[in-house]
From TrEMBL:
Transmembrane segments: 421-443
Name of this chain's protein: HlyD family secretion protein
Segments for region (Disordered): 1-38
Residue ranges that the Swiss-Prot or TrEMBL entry lists as coiled coil: 498-557
Domain GAF: 231-356
Record Pfam families: GAF
Basic and acidic residues: compositionally biased ranges: 19-37
Record keywords: Coiled coil, Membrane, Transmembrane, Transmembrane helix
Signal sequence, renumbered to the chain: none
Amino acid sequence: MTFNDDPASTAVASQGLDEGDRLPPRMGEQKRNHADIDPQLIQETRQQIRKLVHEVTQLSQSDCTAEEFYDGFLNRVVSALASAGGAVWVRTPQGGLDLAFQINLNKTGLPDDPEKQLRHALLLKRVLASGEATLSAPQSGGGPQEAGNPTDFLLVVGGIKINGQCEAMVEIFQRPGGGPATHRGYLRFLLQMCDLAADFLKNRQLKNFDDRQNLWEQLDDFVRRVYACLDLQETIFTIANEGRRLIGCDRVSVALPRGSKCRIEAVSGLDSFDRRADEIKLLSRLASTAVKTGQPLWYRGDSSDLPPQIEQDLDRYLDKSHTRMLAVLPLYRPQTEEQTTARETPELMGALIVEQFVDKETDAEAPAASQPVESPTRRIEVVAEHGAAALTNAFDHSTLFLLPVWRKLGKATSALRGRKLLACLLVAGLVATVVGGLFLAPYEFSLSSTGALRPQTRREVFAGIDGKLIDVAVDEGDWVDANSVVARMRNPELEVEVTRLLGRRRTLNEQIDTAQRALLEGRLLSPAEQSRLEGELAQFQKTAENIERQLVLYREKQQHLVVRSPARGQVVTWRVRENLLHRPVQRGQSLMTIVDPESSWELELHAPEKRLGHIQLAYRNAQKAGETLPVDFVLATHPGEKFEGQITAIDGAAEVHGDDGNTVLIRVAIDAQQLPQLRDGAKVTAKVHCGQRPLGYVLFHDFIETVQSRVLFWF
């Protein structure tokens, strides 16, 4: 993208050209009228600047870093103003200014002249203090120690304000020239861009607040979880897993002292691990060596300042694990004020090992005590501090003599005190009553099944031959008579074959006529020639007979190209014309379904094979008693209404039906007059009544059958 070298034209184009506006002159040129400028050039420049402004708007709403934003922002602003360069200055916590990004700062001569730098810095500080955008003419200002513009460029400076405070400034190095209107256009455009930059900084500030809030929530969750349990093993795994999530590292391990050595007891993300693995052994050895120093071990890529013993064990482990960052922090029992005053040696409770396998930005330069809690080093120390206290509590609790026995005795004793004894007896009586009811109380035993509503008269229309459907005469809902045409097909291969046979038959007929004429007119033929002609004639006639038989077969196949209805009924296949027209089909493929809705209707239920035994038993008992097995069902379209039916037949073979696995088809007779709507294939949910069973069996029969088939079967 290229821009006109005239900065004034660019700025004015960004503001829009109204009737009577005057364009400022180029550098070294006289004023000229609006009519002297090419309108097309003005329109193109205006479109370019609008595009740049749109890009800056999108950039201010993106989730990029500050450096990426300043880069894209300043480049677009400089391009829009056709300026020589620019700079972004960011306010420091101490109230100074830091250069965040610059374009062509060297052209101003500021980096090479300390005196110019001083005057320029005073100018920026004045703008920062006032918060007002300003224009500073080239080589303007007071003396050497006063604020001013020591450059040969027109300086256009605007502030980026957040909540009324100037947090950053944008400085544009504009070429001199142009009138006051042009300069005001520069300033207005820059202020608009500063507002967009302020939106970016506000969004970034809000994101930082959200991140900090999330961190405190994570810290609160870690503290709550790590102190929630007094079981030693569970506490160790909680420190490892929750500590890893809080720190944001790749792996956290916890080691416990075993004599003079440390042994890895928990690794984040692993429920179990092989302690004999080389990596675990090397890490245990490194932890044992590191905790002997009594100081945390920090490794961030350079181990030259470590003691030789630690460096040797560390190098061995790094060769195996390829860790980029590693920290080993001893976990000591928290001391009382008296113990701290007496300078007693704290008891070692374990070691926290933090690892990072990919390079990340670290905060190794600042002391941990001065770092905010969101810094990785401070997070590690917080996890170690709370982990040591939680580990101490869990260790003291777990080492109590006969702790499991005392715990159970304590619970039993507390449950049998005062009114709790009566409550205990009442609960026991209630439990006995419930258990007795489950075994003795009869209840209706029903088994659910799904199926569909079907008319008993139902016929499928199949393709009698391979081909392509060229006409579908019916659609969903149409009534057809028996043997009526419902579709027509075309088979190009069949047509080609029939044409070929007709051609061969024509050729053979001509050959037969020729041979017969030769025999009738051939009085001078020799016996050999006459015998040859008679043989050829017989062969031609036999071939012709074969062709006739083939033509009969092919004509029969051609009749299958006309698809007819096998019975009178209604087409129920959805969008049959749209789905079949111009579609190739194969012989035996179902094209449509025709039903007689005026006939009787029934339910087709697909009962799971594992429930068939109960249904068959109930069905046989009902037949012996001269009764029918009742079925209740609801339609998917009318779930609030319940209807009744009776089982008429149970299929003798099981078949796979969708996701239900092996199922058996059960036919249920119904009274169609009861149903509010008859629609083929309507989904139903049925409940087959299988008699009375104990309440416990009704509630838990699936579990009981699973135990019988998968557990008791093997004993």
